[in-house]
Structure formats: structure tokens, C-alpha cells
Amino acid sequence: MRLRTLSNLRWLAIAGQSAALFLVYFALGYPLPLSYCVAAIAASIVLNVVLAVRYPASHRLANREATLYLAFDVVQLAALLYFTGGIANPFALMFVAPVVIAAATLNLGNTLILAFIAFISVSIIGMVHRPLPWPPGEPLLLPQLYQAGIWAALILGIGFTSVYAWRIASESTRMSAGLAATQLALSREHRLASIGALATAAAHELGTPLGTIAVVARELERGMKENSPEIEDVRLLRAQAERCRAIIARLANPEEGMLGATQRLPLGALLDDIASAYRGDGIEIAVSAADAGESPGLPEPQVWRAPELLHGLGNIIENAADFASSKVNIAAQWEAARLSVVIEDDGPGFAPEIYERIGEPYVTSRPGHHALGETEMGPRGSLDEHEGMGLGFFIAKVLLEQTGGVVKAVNPPGGGARVSIVWPRGVIDGAQPPATTPD
Fold this sequence. Notes:
Number of domains: 3
Structural class: alpha+beta
Radius of gyration: 35 Å
Order of helices and strands: HHHHHHHEHEEHEEHHEE
Distance between the termini: 27 Å
Number of helices: 11
Number of strands: 7
CATH topology of the largest domain: Heat Shock Protein 90
Helix content: 55-70%
Oligomer: single chain
């Protein structure tokens, strides 16, 4: 939280409190201990001035500092209300403001501390306070039961609004961090794809000069005598030029060398290519591809090797291989209106405690890790650390949904875990590469 934000909110509170005092004391003529009330407001003014002198406007407050200053606001409000009727004063509702600010910006521990201070303050001024400003000779006596109801409403309001604000802020922070990690993962895939495209372009550009070098070296070799001291160097030059041409030829041919970012493959071949990186360690990964049978004879779809597709499917297959006992089945099907990929393993399945939250960031049952604690507002560490903490499936889901797919995860009746992805026809197998849409 920036100091300027908190100071501006306090100035706003000071202006409101001053206006209320002026209206009650001077305009309505109600008696109240004006000097004590002015002293309470002056304390807030002094604090703001001191902070403005001591820190620059861009200073960011640590959790402890922000909690301390918000606690001051709660106590200052309690003092002001003590002199003006306690919780019978309608402005007692303002106790909610500092706690909600804390819940939206601080961690759970500091929010609970501030909520406890507010609870104590409300309870004290509920029992001990000066009379509510009212016309002389017309005392306002509220029933004890009604005052108890006001106290209960304040306590419940502070508790509910603070918990609600904290949960919303926490989920928003986690989602933002997860999406940032997704963008980082996607940028890595795009860089790898760019390297492939650059290699293909370089192959075409370098082929001609390397061919010229090889021809010149061959002519030089022919013009030299066998006992010439330079002939071995010329032969070496020609051999190396031929070797470079062979490497360049493989790079230029997607079927033999590096596959470009926009290369298309049959759906089954694409899945087998992705799964090949995760075979081993005693885990069998079987890939099958067939039409759904509703329209027999449909050719196998030619799918674009989009980075979003490669990384998304790769993450899900990797998760399945990590949790499988011995086998992972990858089944692709297609029909006239849609195509689907189902990835199923024979492992323990999704844990019951995370089943309803599958697809959220930082939710995992991976051994050695656990979901982001409810006391944390956001992630820490590098992307590589996060990918073992429940980001892998989240990233995969976001990327696959950006290609137009619908991702569902279930525990099938026979055990294990199953993830299915369904795309409309023409999205990833159309004439153009899939156009991703930001989430």
C-alpha cells in the first residue's frame, strides 16, 4: 500500500469528521465536548503532516506499518465516537472502513489484528461513552436491547465485510500471478518457435553462399597437384562446406529437421510428438487416433503446431505421466463438428480436497507441495518453483482455452484421472493457425 493512498483517505476522513462537528455544534446547536473532539481530529492531522514530512509521497508501507497506521485510525474514530454518543452515533458504521482497507491490501494475520482492535473499540464505546448530541431538554434514551443489536450489527458487519474483501483480493492476486506465469510460459514457447522459424529462414539464405564455397573449393582441389602442401586444407574446406550444406538442408526441410512454428501434423502424430518427451521411467504412454464413427471416412485432421497447443497439451501429459502408476492413454477422436483429445492415467486421481478447485492457480496434490495457503495474498519464487505448486494445469487450461478448446477434468469411475479437451472443427485444424484470444 502506498503511503499517499492511506494519507489521502485520512484527509478525506478528517474533512468528513470536521464537517459533521461543524454541522452538529454550530448549525444544529447541539451540545458536545468540542475541544476533545477537535483534539481527536487534530491528532489525525498531525499524523498526516508528520508522515508527509518524513516520507516521500511514493513511499510504500510494509504490512506492519500499514497495520499500525490503520489501527491509529480505528482508535481515533473510537475516541471521537466516545465523546459523541458511542455506537448510538450513526457514524459508528465507519469502523468498517479501516478493516476493509486492511483486508483488501494486507495479509490475513494483520487483518485479524485490526479486526480485533475494532472489536475491542466497538465493545468499549458500546458500554462507556458520553451522551449522543441532542437538543437540550429532549434526552434520547435508546433501549439496551436496541443498543445490543447495534453492537452485534457492527461486529458482524466488520467480520463479514473484512472476510469478503480479503477473499476477493486474495483470489484476484493469485489469479493475476497465475496469468502472469502463463504469459511467461507462452513467451518461452514463442521464443522456441521463433528459433525454429529463424533456423528455416537461415537455411534458405545460407544455402547459396555455402554452395558457392563448395564449388570454388572443388575447383581449387582439381587445379592442385597431389603433392601440393595446400591440397589437404582445400579438401578439408570442401568437406566442411558440404557438411554445412547437409545441416542447412535438414533445417530447411521440416519433415527431417526442426519443425517450424506453423507446421501442421496429423492429430495423432502431433500427440505422439508431444508425448515422446515424457516417455520413460517405466510409464507407458499410448496414443490412439480414430474418427468418432458418426461420419465414417473423415480424414484425420491436420493440426497446427501452435505454441499454446504444444505447451498446454504437454503440461497435461506431463502431469498424467507424473501421477500414473504404469500407463497413460491419449485418445484423439474427430467428427464433422468437433475434435477431442482425452488424456487418462491409472494413478490415484485428483485429490478430493482440490477436486472442486481444479484449474485454479496454486492448487495441487503433487507430493512435497501444497496449495497456496489461505493466509497468503500472492505467490513467491520463480516460475520453475511455481510449476510444481499447481500452476502447470492452470497454465495448460488457460492456453488451451485461448485456442478455443473446452477443458474438463474428472475422476472416472474406474480410477485414475481424466482430462478431456474439445475443439470445434476448424479452430486448430483450419486453413489458418488458431487465433488466440486473451483470457
